[in-house]
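Researcher: Good morning. I'm working through a list of sequences from a screen, and I'd like to move beyond sequence-only analysis. For each chain I'm collecting a predicted structure so we can compare shapes side by side. This is the next one on the list. No need for commentary yet; just the structure.
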Amino acid sequence: MQMDVQKGSIEGFRLSPQQKHLWRLQQQDGGQPFRAQCVVLIEGRLDRGMLEKAFEQVIERHEILRTTFHRLTAMNMPLQVIDEAHAWQLEEHDLSAFSVAEQSAQIDAVWDELDQLPLDLEHGPLMRTRLLALTPERQVLLVKLSAMCADNESLDNLVQDLTRCYAAARRGESLVDEPVQYADVAEVHNELLEGEETRASKEHWRALDLAALQTLRLPYETRPQGEGFRPQSLSVAVSRETAAKIAALASQQGTSSFNFLLACWQILLRRLTAQEEIIVGAAFDGRNYEGLDQALGLFVRTLPVKSGLQAGLRFPEFLGQLDQKTFESSEAQEYFDLDQLTSLEDESLAGPGFFPYCFSYAESRGACVAGDAKFSILKRSVLTERFHVKLSCLRDGDTLAAEFQYDANRFNRHEIERLAAQFLTLLSSVVEDLHASIEDFNIVSEAERQQLLFEWNTTAREHLAEQCFHHLFEAQARKSPESVALIFEDARLTYAELNARANQLARYLQKQGVGPERTACIYMDRSVEMIIAALGIFKAGGAYVPLDPASPKERLKFMLADTRARVLLTQSHLLDQLPDVQTPILSLDTEWNLIALETTEPPLSDVQPGNLAYIIYTSGSTGMPKGVAVEHRQLCHYVQAITSRLDLSAPGSFATVSTLAADLGHTAIYPTLSSGGTLHVISAERALSAVSLGEYFSHHAIDSLKIVPSHLSALLNASQGNQVLPRQRLVLGGEATRREMVEKIKLLAPRCDIFNHYGPTETTVGVLAYGLGQSSAEDLSATLPLGRPLANTEAYILDQRMRPVPAGVAGELYIGGAGLTRGYLNQPALTAEKFVPHPFGTEPGARLYRTGDLARFLPDAHLEFLGRLDHQIKIRGFRIETGEIE
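Model: Good morning. C-alpha cells for this chain:
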C-alpha cells in the first residue's frame, strides 16, 4: 500500500474492532504495555543463516508482521498500512561461556529488556527478536510483538510457521500455501458489525446488563496508586493430581477445561465479593471461520460472561448454565464490540471501557520439529486487554499453570499471592466434592487458616491474679497518697482523700443493704461525687448501675425496677427529674454529713472477683434494653490489657468527656486510678464547647483523651478546635473513625499517638485496639481498622457457615476470652455453647461466647462445635486484614 502524508492522505485498511478497542486503551494509558511475547527453546543443531531466511519468509507470508499504523491529525483511528519492505533484524548473543545459572539470569534480563522496549506503532518494527546461544545444541529465541499484531494463538502460529519455513529453507524451498491476511479479516469483521442482517446476534449483546461491574471489587483492592495501567504477573502451578482430576471431571460433565476453570474463578470472585451476580471478561479466540486457525493477528475477543451464583447453587448445575452461556457467546463473538455498547464515559464499566476481572485458557501445542531441530515455547506473556486482575490458565501436557496478571497500581504482590493460594485451595476443594454447593467449597489455604486462627490470635499474656478493682485502687492510694487523683473544675482530691471518702460511703452503703450481687444506682451529673460513688459501691461489695440524667423517665423507671437497686445515689438538683420510684434515695451533696460520720478505714466485704462490679444497659434500639453484667475480674482484666496496649503504665493525666452510663469513659477512669495518674472529669456542658474545653486543656496538661469521633469532629470544626487535643495519646471509640479526620488530627497534633478502640459492652468496654501507623491495613479503607484483640482475648471473622473467612472478606465477628462479661442481668449466664447476639443499632455488632480458648474448638471440630450455636441474628460487615479487624 502507498501513502502520501504531505498530500493529506493515507492508503491503508481499517482497523479491526479488536484493534480499535486496543488502540483506545493504549491512548488512555499513554504507554504501550500491550504485547505478545514468548521464549522459544530450540534444541538441536541450528543453522542460524537458515533461521534468518525462515524469519524473512514468515514476515513475507504474513502482512500483519509488516504492518504499521498511521493517521492524520483529524483522524481518531489510524489505518493499517502494509509495508512492502520491513526493518527487522535478529540480534544474537553468545552465552555459551556462562554457567547454567548465569545463562538463566541472562535470559531473564533480556526478557525484561524486551518487555520494556517500546514499539513504534507508526514507524516499526513491531516485532523484536533476540537469539541467545547456550550450547551448540541449545538456543533460546525471544520474540516480542505488538498486541496490535498478535495474540496468544498468534505466538503458537508464528512458531509453527517459522518451523515450517526453517524446514523448507533447509531443503532450498519456500512454502507455497497462502495464509489468510489479517487486513482482509478485519474488513469482514467491520462489515459484520455494520450490517443489519445480523441484528439478532447484536441484540444478544445489547440486552446484556453490565451494571454489576459498578460494584464488583475485590476486598483488598486499593484506590489506584498511580496513573495508567501497570501490569505485573504471578504464576503458580496447580498440582498434577488436581490438574488430572480437573481434566477428568470436565470430561465427565461434558464440558471443557475452559468452562470448568472459568466456573471456579467466578465462584472465587463471588465468595470474595459477596456478590451473587458476577461478570468476567473471558477471552475467546475469535477464529470461528475456516482458515483463521493458522492466521496471525489480534483475533482474541474479551467477552462478558455474566453468571448468577445464588446461595445453594451446586457446582454441576452452575457448570451447566455456564456451558450454555459460553456457547452462546462464542457463536455471537463476531458481533460483540465493547466500545459500541458503552461509551468511554460510561460509569457502568470500571476503567472505563474494559472488564475489571478477566479469564483466559489455552493448551500448549507442544514442540514443532524441523529436521533435527525442535522448537517449543517455554514461556509467554500476552497482554491484549486492560484489567484489574486476569487469570490465565495454561495446560501443557499433564501440567496446569495459573498466571495471575494484575494492575500493580491497585494490588500489591502479597495480595495476589493470597488470591492465588485461595484459587488453588478452591480447585482442590471442588475436585474433592464436585456436587457441593458453591458456598461449601473451601477457599482458605492451610497457611492462611493457621494465620487467621492462631498467629493473629496469639494473645496469651500473664495477667494479674483475679481480684477486685478497688483493691488495685487501694494499692495505688498507699503508694502515692498525696498525688492528685481526681479533678473536676475547681475541686480536686488526692488519692488519700478519694480513698477515705470512698471508704466512708462504702460503710454507709453496707448499712443500706449494699453488698455482693446487690446493686446501687448512680444518677448524677459528671462530678467528683460520681467517682466517689462508683468506688464506694465497689468497696461496699456491691455493683453500681449508672443512670444518665438525660434519659427518659420511663427508661430510668425500667432500669431501677430491673436491677432491684438497694439505694439510688444522686445530687439534690436532680431530684425533680427522677420518676416515681420506691428505691431509697441518697443525695451525696446534701446528706454527706451523715456519711462523714463513718470511719475512713476500709470496710470489710465478702466481695470476690467473680461478683458483679457494674451493670450497663444497652441502648434498646433493637428491643428492650438489657443490663450487661460486668464482674470485677473482667474489669481488672480490661484495665491491665488496655493499660499495656496504650502504654498507660506511667502516671499521666486522662480526661473523660462521656457519661458514666456508657462505658466509653471507662478507658480513662479505671486505668488512670489504678496507675497513679490524674483523672479529669469534664462536665457535659464543657465537653460540648470547643472554646470551653480548649480553655480547660490550655490550663491543664492533658496527656490522654478518649472520645467519640463525631464528638471530636464537631469540636475540631469549631473555632479554637485545635486546642482540644491531648499531648500524648488520643483514643477514639464508639463509632467508625474516618481517615479524613485522622489526617486533620495528625496535622494539628503530629506528636499525638492515635488509637482506635472497639468492643461491644459485653466484652467489657472494648476488645480490639489499633495504633495508627502500626500496619499497612490503614491504606485499605476509608475508616481506620479496629485493630487486634487485647491480651487474653480472641477475635475471629466467620462466614454464615461458621468458617474462618479469608483476610479482606466481610463476615461476622466472634469474640471470646477473659474479658467477656457474665451476660445480661436476670438472664442465664453465657456458656461456650451459647452465643449472645449484640444489638448495636444500625452499626455492625458482634457475637460473643464465654470461653478462654475458642481456638481449641476451631482447628478440626469447629463445624461440629459452632454448628450447635444460635443463628437467629446475622451481623456482618467486619473483615480482617494483616491481622487488623476492620
